[in-house]
Amino acid sequence: MGSFLDSRLWPLILKEIRQILKNKQIIFLLIFPPTVQLLVFGLALNPDVSNISLGVADYSNSPNSRELVSTIVANDTFEIASYLPSAADIGQQVRTGRISTGLVIPPDFEQQIATKEPAEVQVLIDGVDANTAGISSGYIKQIIRQYGRSLSQSDRVQPVQTTVNFLYNPGLLSSWFFVPGVIGVVLTLTGSLVSSSTVIREKDVGTLEQLLMTPAVGWEILTAKIAPLFVLLMGDVLLASAIARLVFNLPFRSNYFLFLAALGIYVFVCIGIGIILATISKKQQQVILTSLSTGGRL
């Protein structure tokens, strides 16, 4: 330990740490954008919809019609906003935006089921939000189809039943799919951008040429530049892991040290990409645009 502190490498590392701490832009890039990007992308890239307001006009008011409504609102996708007396009121509520989906059950619904005739219900969906409208349409069609299938097969013995279990993401939560990928994107952009900005700034100021005239050899200069950035970016890894666990409730079921080791290699590669981009760039604006473009493609 003493020999390392007495070597030329330690003063170079201390110099890099002081320069990073003095550069408010680098500190900002290391903390603010990764946090905001992870939260925004993790929440925005969520195709799931829940608590869709549902209006019901039940002309039948029979046990089967009430069972159908209960089946539709059994999960968190739909919630009953109001029971309305007529289909015209349902249409008015959808047009004014008070409800997103309307369900109209005809008066002969119970009779059609009893005589095993095809029973029809009307569904009105607000199409202003195309994404929500498409998803809610698919959900309610699937729920009604499953309800109809259960009625037609209630008097039969099922020879084969299929039970599907989703491994690793049993609830099919979208955040569990997106957040790990967003962490990789954030590390790529932050690692390449911060390292390239640090090197290009020294090229602009002229301190890089001064370092080349010191007794320090090339690998010492390069190691001194990489080591502080590596430690700070691994801090970003810990920050991203904490956000994923606390905000998105993303479970971790593996060896955490192996996870850190793999991400450490990835961070090292991103720093190397940033240094290469800074070497071939001439201005800070150029290296920032190149880093964003390269990081986005990677």
From TrEMBL:
One of the record's GO cellular component terms:
plasma membrane
Among the Pfam families in the record, one is ABC2_membrane_3
Domain of life of the native organism: Bacteria
Residues covered by the ABC-2 type transporter transmembrane domain: 27-289
Task: Classify the protein's membrane topology as the record does.
Answer: Multi-pass membrane protein
Alphabetically, the GO molecular function entries are: ABC-type transporter activity
Q: What is this protein called?
A: ABC transporter permease
| Species this chain originates from | Leptolyngbya foveolarum
